[in-house]
Design brief:
- With about 190 residues, this protein is mainly alpha-helical.
- The protein has 2 domains: about 1-105, Orthogonal Bundle (Rna Polymerase Sigma Factor, Chain: A), CATH 1.10.1740; about 110-194, Winged helix-like DNA-binding domain superfamily/Winged helix DNA-binding domain (Arc Repressor Mutant, subunit A), CATH 1.10.10.
- Helix content is about 80%, strand content about 0%.
- It is built from 9 helices and no strands.
- It has helices at about 10-15, 20-40, 45-60, 70-105, 110-115, 120-135, 140-150, 155-160, 165-194.
- Residues about 105-110 have low confidence and may be disordered.
């Protein structure tokens, strides 16, 4: 069957009736974008792959109870977000416990000093950028990702996240400002070390 001729809505209806081919096509169509979106939320490739698998398993198992979707992409994005955030919350709790344990045995000062010295190459710039992203709140990171990856405007972002358009615009502004300040701080520290 030539699934590429079917719209997402048509595939969704067939999948709900138990059509494995339609289900497989939905998975294939959405996987790359879901993976990229997941990276904006979790930045752990294995967790994202597991989350997408879990999402599609849930969809298949519950297909007869699923509502009709006006926008299949929106429905799947929201569902993936729910799955990944639930798993991230569990992982964060584990990480906090592990960090508290390790912190009592590790001298952080030497690690920080090594990090400052390593900020000299372009590869290290990329690391700095990723660290700057990690300083953002989950909401700031998500809003930036929706803007950059999916090209959503402020109104669409606001609707997707249940915010006012002004709130979405303010979150984007604060996120960009925070990243610039963080990068500038490390640039100044680097200059002072040299």
């Amino acid at each position: 069957m030539e699934w590429n001729k079917y719209s997402n809505i048509e595939l969704w209806k067939l999948f709900k009736k138990g059509d494995r081919g339609a289900f497989s096509e939905l998975f294939s169509r959405f996987y790359p974008r879901l993976f990229r979106y997941g990276m904006s939320l979790v930045s752990n490739e294995e967790a994202i792959k597991d989350g997408i698998q879990e999402l599609f398993l849930e969809l298949w198992c519950n297909r007869t109870q699923l509502a009709e979707a006006n926008s299949v992409e929106y429905y799947i994005l929201v569902s993936l977000k729910r799955v990944l955030l639930k798993e991230r919350k569990k992982a964060n709790l584990r990480q906090e416990r592990n960090f508290e344990y390790i912190e009592s045995f590790v001298q952080i000062e030497s690690g920080i000093e090594r990090q400052f010295i390593q900020l000299e190459s372009e590869q290290e710039r990329e690391i700095l950028y990723k660290k700057a992203l990690k300083t953002l709140t989950a909401r700031q990171s998500e809003v930036l990702w929706l803007r950059m990856e999916f090209g959503l405007d402020n109104g669409e972002i606001a609707d997707f996240l249940g915010l006012s358009e002004k709130s979405a615009r303010n979150i984007i502004y604060e996120a960009i400002k925070k990243m610039r300040e963080w990068v500038a701080l490390f640039d100044n520290i680097k200059i002072n070390i040299n």
